[in-house]
Amino acid sequence: METPDLEIQLKTLPSSPGVYQYYDKKGKLLYVGKAKNLKKRVSSYFNKKHDNARTHMLVRKIVQIKHIVVESETDALLLENNMIKNYQPRYNVMLKDDKSYPWICIKNERFPRVFPTRRMIKDGSEYYGPYTSMKTVHTLLDLIKGLYPLRTCNYDLSKEKIESGKYKVCLEYHLGNCLGPCEDKISAETYHDNIEAIRDIVKGNFKDSLHRFRSKMKEHADAMEFEDAQRIKDKIDILEGYQAKSTVVNPSINNVDVFSIVSDEGYGYVNFLQLSHGAIIRSHTLELKKKLDESDQELLEIGIIEIRQRFNSQSPEIYTPFEVDLGEKFKVTVPKLGDKKRIVELSERNAKYFRMERFKQTKIVDPDRHVNRLMAQMKADLRLSVEPRHIECFDNSNIQGTNPVAACVVFKDGKPSKKDYRKFNIKTVTGPDDFASMEEVVFRRYRRLLNEDEPLPQLIIVDGGKGQLSSGVKALESLGLRGKIAIIGIAKRLEELFYPGDSIPLYLDKKSETLKVIQQLRNEAHRFGITFHRNKRSSNALNTELETISGIGEKTVVELLRHFRSVSKVKAASEKALAEVIGPAKAKIIYEHYQQTE
């Protein structure tokens, strides 16, 4: 698919956090930026006149906009940093130097130190982060040291040197900030248990530490040590408020290609994330048109080979959401949990956003393709034998059994066809009986269509659960249409779809277009029915007061209400006042009617 016009690209951007990239007509990267809301931020470049000549020149050169969707604004900031350093775009002036974000290092030592750093040294040490603020790092380290005292010295605490008595405890030990491993006052095993707990904290797993904190707080409170208890409580509050580290970057994930796929009836969308030293350095989504009914596995295998060749990727390991067969030369991993799993989920999210943008762009530039794809999708999702080009939805409206009415709305090719909407007064049912009312209106609707030789819908939707669905099926059966038209019921609470003869409902993906069309149908039927019901109630209220008077018609009632504004004022008016509005003859009838009533 060719690159759409900028206007269309802007219209279809997601309102999510992420990083955007601007390209010129030659495909050269001009600028990388981050955004809390991609749509608002990117649109702002094109919605105003820029005083800055550099920005004005940038906007003139932009031909294509790409983006990567992430979880949070923090992730966007980190990813922006990585991409600017990797690609050095011409119009980015910030972040091109070697300054990097801080990490927390757990040093590869017998008694590991834990400290902040901006440099990653490959000596087997563990690095957690990166963090967007050094303040966050110090807060977290203060928290850790308050719970788990650690050494701060840089001595070589080998077993031999400790046993020979080479070191003596320092002031930190006497202040309670260190447990004295230099004099063997804590075993390596116990120290490493503390390090394991620290790993959990920096990974965002605070459960065990919070439990220990709360126990210590209770001990202080029981001992009437309220200041110490408050100090622990403050740390608990900080710990609970602290957000887990970024999933965008993890130094343990190095030199890896990540692939995922989403698909529909006609196309597959393969997303590719390239990671180097734990940082995303490239994102690309490939659209593959299905020739036959290829499976997601087949499409993903084709997409992986094509993308790796296109970008000349030499990464030895590939992450995918499910098993694929690429031969023995590649190591394929299907992550089950942790950062590796989250990076695959991030790839899947980007594939889904790309697919949604393609839908929106297609809807604008090629509406027929959009409708064809939507109809094919609905046919598959709803297990229909034909595409639901013509859908009708029924809804009953009554309040406390008064003025029962029903509405039928019609959608053709996924859009409302308002000229075909119909409303029904319930004729054969007394009182609030939704089931009987549904049977009546479905019967009347399709008896008329049959009598007038009008086209029947491919799908009928009734607003309600099994009871309303059974009533609709009964009406179709009596007309000989059972099995000729598909009919389903939608229950409001969990958006369950019920089918005739099946006690187990169907649940669609909450974000699926099929469910959105059904919800739109149901909501439109409800709106149309409620409006008709309100109008009928208002009309009936007038009838009981004025139109029931013999000799007084609708036109007279309208004139009176236009002048007096309410029925009570008409009732209180003098005969002379009434005569000035509707003439003496009708004024006398109304005046005498109310005099007799009183």
From TrEMBL:
Which residue intervals define the domain UVR in the entry? Answer: 207-242
Q: Which Pfam family, an example, fits this chain?
A: HHH_5
HAMAP family, per database record: UvrC
Species of provenance:
Leeuwenhoekiella nanhaiensis
Entry's InterPro entries? GIY-YIG_endonuc, GIY-YIG_endonuc_sf, GIY-YIG_UvrC_Cho, RuvA_2-like, UVR_dom, UVR_dom_sf, UvrABC_protein_C, UvrC
Q: What is the lineage of its organism?
A: Bacteria, Pseudomonadati, Bacteroidota, Flavobacteriia, Flavobacteriales
Q: What's the domain of life for this entry?
A: Bacteria
Recall the GO molecular function terms of this protein's record.
DNA binding; excinuclease ABC activity
This molecule's function is given as: The UvrABC repair system catalyzes the recognition and processing of DNA lesions. UvrC both incises the 5' and 3' sides of the lesion. The N-terminal half is responsible for the 3' incision and the C-terminal half is responsible for the 5' incision.
- Which PANTHER family does its entry note? UVRABC SYSTEM PROTEIN C (PTHR30562:SF1), UVRC/OXIDOREDUCTASE (PTHR30562)
Q: Which GO terms describe its cellular component?
A: cytoplasm; excinuclease repair complex
Give UniProt keywords alphabetically: Cytoplasm, DNA damage, DNA excision, DNA repair, Excision nuclease, SOS response
Residue ranges occupied by any UvrC family homology region profile domain in the UniProt entry = 272-471
Concerning its family, UniProt says: Belongs to the UvrC family.
Q: Signal peptide location in the record? A: none
Quaternary structure, from the entry: Interacts with UvrB in an incision complex.
**Which ranges carry the GIY-YIG domain?**
15-93
Protein name per its UniProtKB record: UvrABC system protein C
Which GO BP terms sit in this record?
nucleotide-excision repair; SOS response
Claim: DNA repair is one of the keywords in the record: yes
Which cellular compartments is it found in? Cytoplasm
Q: Is Acetylation among the key words of this record?
A: no
